[in-house]
Amino acid sequence: EANTTCLICLEPVGDKKSYGTMVCPACRHAWFHRGCIQGQALRDGIACFRCPLCRDRDAFPSEMLTMGIRIPFRLPSRDSRAEEALLAWHSRCDASGCLCPGGRQQADEEG
């Protein structure tokens, strides 16, 4: 389709499959640049590599290997600062409508 974008970088991809553009073999709706999916494969490793749209782990990795995408046999690599931010506990409720019986100021020991 016209105006199709890469699911990883959100930049336009071509309107047909080519060496530089690829499509998910499972859902056929996920389009991406070869360089973008290669970067995802390098970050995810074999344990977590899947289609960014349908999350297929069966047909997707094997087809990407066939198409020349290198998938390392290792655990995923993550940005340590981003991971720390995800693991941080909130010190107080920041929801627009707090439903906690103790109110916004109540802080549980676990976060």
From TrEMBL:
It holds the Pfam family zf-RING_2. Residues 6-55 form the RING-type domain. GO terms for cellular component: nucleus. Coiled coil: none annotated. Keywords: Ligase, Metal-binding, Zinc, Zinc-finger. GO terms for molecular function: ligase activity; zinc ion binding. Gene3D superfamilies: Zinc/RING finger domain, C3HC4 (zinc finger). InterPro entries: PHD-type_Zinc_Finger, Zinc_finger_PHD-type_CS, Znf_RING, Znf_RING/FYVE/PHD. This is G2E3 ligase.
